[in-house]
Structure formats: C-alpha cells, structure tokens
Amino acid sequence: MTLRIIPKLEIKNKNLIKGICFEGLRVVGDPKERIKKYIDDLADEIFLIDVVASLYSREIDYNFITNICKNCHIPITISGGIRELSIVDKIFQCGASKISLNSFIFDNEKIIQTIGNIYGQQAVVVNIEVRKIDSDYFVFYNYGRENSNIKIEDWIQKVQENGAGEIILTSIDNDGLQNGFDYKLIEKISKLIQVPLIFSGGFSSYLDIVKLNKIDNIDVAIASSLHLDEISILKLKSQLVKENIDVRV
Amino acid sequence: MLESNLIILKYKAGNYGALSSALKKLKYDFLISNDLNLIEKSKTIILPGVGNFGSFSKYLNESKLRNIISEKINNGHKVIGICLGFQILFEKSEESPHEKGLSIFEGEIKKLSNQLVKTPNIGWHSLDFEINQYKFTNYFYFNHSFFLKTKNMSNILSSLKYGNNLIPAVYNKKNFYGFQFHPELSYHTGLKLLDAIIKR
Predict the structure, then answer these.
(1) Residue of B71, B83, B98, B99 with catalytic role
(2) Which is the most buried residue in A106, A175, B25, B86, by most CB within 10 A?
(3) What percentage of chain A exceeds 90 in pLDDT?
C-alpha cells in the first residue's frame, strides 16, 4: 500500500492561508495555482478546508469549489461548515470526491452513517483536531475554538462506531511549526484506529515520515512546508523512495 | 431531446463530478441522464461508482433501468462500470444482503478482510495490464470496502493482492468493462484508460 502525501489547504475567503496552532492566519498564496502545482508534483489527494465556515455559520463558496475541482483528476476532499445534507449534495455537485465532517458531528453522530448511506461510506472523512491539555488530548471544533471536552480515545471510538470510513487527525499544538509530529499522540491512538488514518501537524522533513512509518501505515497531510515552498512533493517522494517507503511515483 | 453517444447514468447520489471533468478533459460530448429512451439509444454508457449496492439496486428497479442496462450488456453494447457500477453487475453483495445485483455475470461481492490491512482500501496501487492493445503499468486510485469474488477468473485482466484479499481490479467480458478502482480519479493514467475504452 503506498503512503499518501496529501497537501492540506486551509481557505479563508477564497485565499490560501496558514497559521501557527490555528492562530495568526496569513495569506500564503492562491489556492488554484498551488493545487495545480501539487497535482503536477504527484500529490496523491487534495484536502481543502474552509476554516471559517463553521465558525461564522456560513456555507463554503460553491463557485470557488467548482473551479478548484474542475481540473483535479485526483481525489479532492472538501471540508468546512458541512452541517446539512443539502450542503453535502451541493459540494458533490461541485465535483468533490469526498467530504469531511468535524463540528457538525458533535450532537449529530448519526450524520456520518446518514451521509454514508446515500453517497457511500468511502465518501465521508471524519476530521479530528486535538489539543493537549495536561496529559490528555481533547477534541476541538469550530477550527480549534471550542473544546468538546471529549478525549481523543473516546471520540475515535464514537466516530468509528458510527461508520467513519477514514479519519484525518490534526495536532493543533504542532500545526504550522514545522517541528516534527507529535509521536506520543500517534503512539497513543494508532492502535485504536481501524480505518485509514491521515496525520497532520508539524511536518518538517522526510525523516518525520520515516519515523511515522515505523509506528504504523499512516498517511500524511502537509501544509506549511508545501505552501511556503520548503519542499516539493516530488523531492519528498524521491527521499522516501531512498528510505524504502512505498509511494506513488 | 439531445441524443448522445456517451451517457453517464444519472443517479440521485450525484457525486460524479470527477467523471464529468475527466470526459470534458478528454473532449468527449456526453450527457448525464436516466432517461430510458436516451440510454437505450446511446452507444456507450458509464455506470458511476457512487452510493451503496442496495440503494443503487433499488434505484435501477424503480427507474426501470435494470432491464435496459441488462439488455445493452447482453447485446454487446459498450458499458463501463466503475467501482459500485462494476459490482452491481453481479449477483449479490454483503453490503446489502437483501438486494439483488443485475446478475449478468457470475459472482458475489464480499467485504474486504481487515486481518492484515486497513479497510476501506483507500489509496493508490500499482497495476500492470493490457486492455484493447494498450499497456498500462501504473498507479490507480482505490476507495472501497467490498470486492468481487468469482469462480470465473478468465474475465479478470488484473487483480490486486491486498492483505488476505485478492481483488479483481480490471474486468472485461464482451463489451463490458469493469473497474474496481476509479479511473476518473487516477490522474493522467486513468484518463488514458477511459479514452482507450471509449474511443474503441
């Protein structure tokens, strides 16, 4: 099974932004241009999230998404403010291959199965964003603003019980710092996750993936390092090949 | 009504945007339709991979498309089935035990075993096969929890070993082409594959 390298694009008002630990957001580029570059460089999927849709209770810009999806030809997951079936339908009409849920699942767990029954379980990704508080990890929603007071291990169990087909997990504390992954977090939860897992938060070099790969078969989402041109996907994949890590080339 | 040589079967789930953009990129004219007449007259139909087995089966019954599609395949018209659109051709599926498939080909759809690997099977796998004299050695994108189990392996052009599972990836009988992966999500290679089948 090849390890997936997935550029993660956080969008605010149609701009590509990047923060540190979900704060201090600054515009770092044009989403369409960057996506084209990443796809040409053999990105395996695209993960795009509107970071203010849930926070401001508004919907993602459908024309913008349609435009983004038009020339993709690889899987693209859209996330952000998905809180009704009508929104899910519109996003799929725009050309998305998968949608991702976070904030809406709290108090609405059954929505995972409901959407899965219509569009297929493979079309629904659960997005989990966590902060470390003392020695536990708590799940946050509304882009890191609200603490659900639910521990990561309990939430993982809950979403899997409700039919999550894939999970993307972000360590908010490591986000944007390019200082490596939170391996304690990964070791804590990797055995609990039975479905494919994408990890995000803190990627700095191919060595992080080598270390991750020793723990389990986990895929990777990368933001800062790619958007700020610290590395290209092509270069990263060639480094991983040298380390005998199976990637799509 | 506009007749069309190439039709994507319209299904309520509606997540076939990638398939549309793939055909547009390849410069094919096509319609997205569930009109019985148009489908009967079209040269090529694509059954997209959306939804689940049970609801797709019910939909084909309710819309009366079941018979038309079965006829087209048995009469040797070109039909392409992607993921669920491929699985529906068989007898039944563990995904929806109470619904029947089209039963055009022998076989049943089983759940992937996650003894050695994660399921669903999501990601890129390398395949090596020849179809219509085109050789493909490249990565294709899979995203599924169920797969075909059949006694008749002669129609399978390529299989994927995934943990304990032997997954038929490319199926061809008469003028039916079935793919367990998503060509429309498999970048240039996937588009080349679609082109090779449609233009033939």
Answers:
(1) B83
(2) B86
(3) 91
